[in-house]
Design goal:
Blueprint: E1 7-23, E2 26-40, E3 43-49, H1 59-74, H2 81-90, H3 95-113, H4 117-121, E4 126-129, E5 131-134, H5 139-148, E6 154-158, H6 164-174, E7 178-182, H7 189-201, E8 204-208, H8 216-223, E9 231-233, H9 240-246, E10 252-255, H10 257-260, H11 263-275, E11 279-282, H12 289-296, E12 304-305, E13 318-319, E14 322-324, E15 327-329, E16 339-340
Parallel strand pairs: 5-6, 6-7, 7-8, 8-9, 9-10, 10-11, 11-12
Antiparallel strand pairs: 1-2, 2-3, 4-15, 13-16, 14-15
Helix pairs in contact: 1-3, 2-3, 5-6
Active site: 158 (proton acceptor), 256 (proton acceptor)
Protein name: Dipeptide epimerase
GO molecular function: metal ion binding; racemase and epimerase activity, acting on amino acids and derivatives
Length: 343
């Protein structure tokens, strides 16, 4: 498969968090993503891939896979998006590498056509309001973070640690914003049963992944509780094959490009979820504006958006993704609409 005239470079990019970010699985002060850059036909196209660490993926592994096999997977004709992305989907490489290649294809096509990717896809430039995430902290720390999270209509509170209810009370005392919570598999059924009445009284909209992905018994048992919070599945949702089983025990799916492999598979997941009457939320890892922009191209198709990874970092390697009244606003520039930040 000739690749003359193409050049692909994959580099790691350290993203520094504004403050320590803690969830039920652990805490971090920085995250590393991989930026892939293709030069072809006088166009520079980019895509980003984020490792799913609990799957054992690493930035170094993603970068190595891209440089070893990326050009062959892309092939000669970048207009042949379906054929390319079928090859990428069948590849046994890391999902983060698939996300980056998918991003390159969509960025290149938009730039070649002189149109934003969202217009090529037929979606909208403005997304639903994104939630802004507040990690696990003390009650006082949580209240302080809430006071500083101005301009957002929706807050997502990470739970799964001691004092969840007290922290949520502190949040509600500081804001009238819509509240969502994310357990990151940190609860058991007894905890969920005990906390649900107060969570409902505090106006929590839904809970994301309260139980371990494999603990379907707890999901089924919680589903029989009345009243209860709607449940959306993150860690238990990978790709299209995950969607139909989830319809049997939860109310919605969380789509992350780092897990499903990119825009093409994410769009298939959206259509499947709609057919099964599941709610759809787009989520993210800690990513730069490049990675977030890839998911945001489909954001207008979702019920909920949790695409705030770029808002949690202090360094910004890319720019071009807007934010207005708590909503992401996609660039009207060609392709994904983001470019390396100057200086």
């Amino acid at each position: 498969m000739p690749t003359i005239g193409k050049e692909l470079l994959a580099t790691t990019q350290v993203l520094t968090l504004r403050e320590t970010f803690q969830i039920a699985r652990g805490a971090a002060d920085e995250e590393t993503v991989v930026v892939a850059e293709l030069r072809h036909d006088d166009i520079v196209a980019r895509g980003e891939g984020a490792p799913v660490d609990y799957w054992g993926e690493t930035p170094e592994g993603i970068a190595a896979a891209l440089e070893a096999e990326g050009l062959e997977l892309l092939g000669d004709d970048l207009f042949a998006g379906e054929a390319i992305l079928r090859r990428v989907a069948a590849w046994d490489g890391p999902q983060g590498a698939k996300m980056a290649l998918d991003g390159i294809v969509h960025d290149w096509l938009g730039k070649r056509l002189g149109q934003p990717t969202w217009r090529v896809l037929g979606t909208d430039r403005v997304t639903p309001p994104t939630s802004y995430t507040i990690g696990i902290d003390s009650v006082e720390g949580t209240a302080d973070k809430t006071r500083r999270a101005t301009g957002y209509a929706v807050l997502k509170i990470k739970v799964g640690g001691p004092g969840d209810v007290e922290r949520l009370r502190a949040v509600r005392a500081e804001t009238s914003a819509r509240l969502r919570i994310d357990g990151n598999e940190g609860w058991d059924l007894e905890t969920a049963r005990e906390l649900t009445p107060e969570l409902i009284s505090l106006g929590v909209e839904f809970v994301e992944q309260p139980f371990p992905a494999a603990d379907l018994d707890s999901f089924h048992a919680y589903g029989e509780l009345s009243p209860r919070l709607p449940v959306l599945i993150d860690e238990g949702c990978r790709d299209l094959g995950s969607v139909a089983p989830i319809a049997g025990y939860a109310d919605g799916i969380v789509i992350k490009l780092a897990k499903c492999g990119g825009i093409r598979e994410a769009l298939r997941m959206v259509h499947a979820a709609r057919a099964l009457q599941l709610k759809v939320m787009f989520g993210c890892m800690i990513e730069s504006e490049l990675g977030i922009a890839q998911a945001a191209q489909l954001g207008s198709l979702a019920d909920y958006i949790d695409l705030d990874g770029h808002l949690l970092i202090s360094n910004a390697p890319f720019t071009g993704l807007g934010l207005k009244d708590g909503r992401l606003v996609l660039s009207d520039g060609p392709g994904l609409g983001v470019e390396p930040a100057r200086g």
